[in-house]
Amino acid sequence: MNRKLILTIFYLSFCILNCFASHIIGADLSLVRTGKSNPNYKAVLHMYIDEHKQGITENNPLEIVLLYRKRDNKLMMQIDLQQETPKHLSFKNKTCADFFDIHLFAKKMSKEIFLDPNLYDDDGGYYLIFDRCCRSPLITNIDNVGLASTALLLEFPSLKKYPNYSSPEFTVPNGEYLCKGKPFQMTMDVTDAEGDEIKYKIVEPLSGYTGNGNSFFVNFTPQTTYYPVKWAAGYGLNNQLPGNPSLSIDSKGTISLTPTETGFFNFAILVEEFKNGIKVGSNIRDYALPVLNCPNTTAPSKPIITYQGNPINQTIEICAGQTIKLETSDDPTWVFQWKNNLDNILDAALNNISVKDSGTYRVVKSFKSTCAEESESEPVKVKIIDLNSKVKIIADRLEACEGEKILLKLENVSQTADWYLGSGFIKKDKSLIADKSGDYSAKVVSTNPTCPTVKDNILLKIYPKPTISIPNVLGYQICIGDNLDLKTIESPNYTYQWLKNTVPISGATDSKLNVYEFGNYTVKVKNTTGNCEVESEEFKVTLKTSCGSISFGSTDNIYLPNTFSPNNDGKNDDWQVYNLDKYPDAEIFVYNRWGDPIFYSKGNTIKWDGKYKNELVPVGIYIYILDLKTVGFSPIEGKLTVLY
Q1: What pTM did the predictor assign?
Q2: Among 458, 461, 456, which residue's Cα sits nearest to residue 404?
Q3: Residue 217 C-alpha from the chain's centroid
Q4: Distance of alpha carbon 81 from alpha carbon 63, whole angstroms
Q5: Exposed e or buried b for every residue in 210-231, given b needs 16+ CB within 10 A?
Q6: Which of 64, 85, 237, 261 could serve as 242's disulfide partner, Cβ 3.0–4.6 Å?
Q7: Contact 479, 426 (CB under 8 A)
Q8: CA dihedral in degrees (405, 411, 414, 416; nearest 10)?
């Protein structure tokens, strides 16, 4: 006979004698990666049990979870979960919990399994189902609750498409009760190994197919639908736990309400998991909370957390591996419950606690023999200083030029350091903007003197920029055929590059440039030590207006008019040079007042219509240069007036 079937029959036989009871207060299911290749997953079931109906020492051999393919509800695997050590839920006010006789414990069942991605590759996904009877008769808002089963549904995607998938996992809750008319909050958050987007929603608990004439322990018949529980009169989705404000859950998994009715109320929380906006999985926590008529008794004074006799101001730092004792004032009439990150710490009911883990600690104080409202301390944050952790400075560069800045930050973004330049303190921060040369250091100093200071150093060099000459603001003027030297400061530690009208001049790499053309010149100077470069202001080279002209012999009769009016009136519309028949290679240049060439012509027929780039030039005086390109004749320079 199949071994699994034998075990299942044994379990069912065992449970006929031991397991049939109305005991379930709540449950949740998760499927988490193990970090191993085989088995690669662990199925985990938490059941929350009413101890009046099942003792914490009573042992169930296993609970059964079934794995189906969604597309056709094909059974893929039966998972027999084994019980781990159960634990009582810890109440912050144990006196009142005992007074109202509320005793609950958490039973964890788990099994490591292998899910082959090549087998679990269906794009429609898969689901786990846990279907178990019966719920605790304490529950107020479900009809015929003693025979109502609990169903948990966990959906997950194709493991071939999402090979690293791990479902959200609920943390075991605190033991809690609510007081009618008093605001209440409780964390129902999950952890997610992949850091996916998590969304919470209040939903109706699901009812399974166990009980009511079927097996109380497992239902092997595939079901296409799992329906909500049948509510008792007056209850439903929007009134599962009556309150004003009503039951709600925020984006971090914290439920809140102010209850308006006493009872033991069942509700459910759906957790949906999204990757890049696409839903990939979900699971449910089914849970019940008691609402009581709490005594209207004055709470004890607010406890104050101390360390070595001194109150702690919000944060205390300890070295990794160190254990410290947090305390609060004691009194034989008080009882305590310590908490870390809002979770009650098991068996932490004295006025002191030994702490070696980081977190936010609080202590709740209540009367030992009287059920009354409790009081809670201010939070104290315990921060661990890891002796093995290093401080490392990250720089966006190690060298810069004068006027530039270097960003320094810490590799560990959670650290805050004291920043120094040499021995001079600068500031306390996570980063620093540096603009000076020197040895910078970042020191992480603990408030706990027993923890060593850890630090890192980095050497930065800020190089000065080259010194350059300032051009004459009046500019530089030359006559046609002349030249001049433009100069900047000479240094063997500099390299040079001259430019004309922003274009580099080939071979112009000295501190001096000989120019014979009009234009706007600049020089880029770079130092060889820091590679810092600066560019000069413009050296403006223009035509000199006082250049002398050369006259021709009287027999040449060359005539250059000094005025014309290109207004298209039929009179003097063109400027023309006459009597150039002997000079077929003659060239003429016309310049504006800034030395820019605006007209050029070659040959012995020279005529200008007064346009530059197809537009008439403005009224004004222009310079012309006529070069006859003949031995013995220098270029002729003159002025030309344009009128309209």
Answers
A1: 0.61
A2: 461
A3: 46
A4: 5
A5: bbeeebbbbbeeeeeebeebeb
A6: 261
A7: no
A8: -50
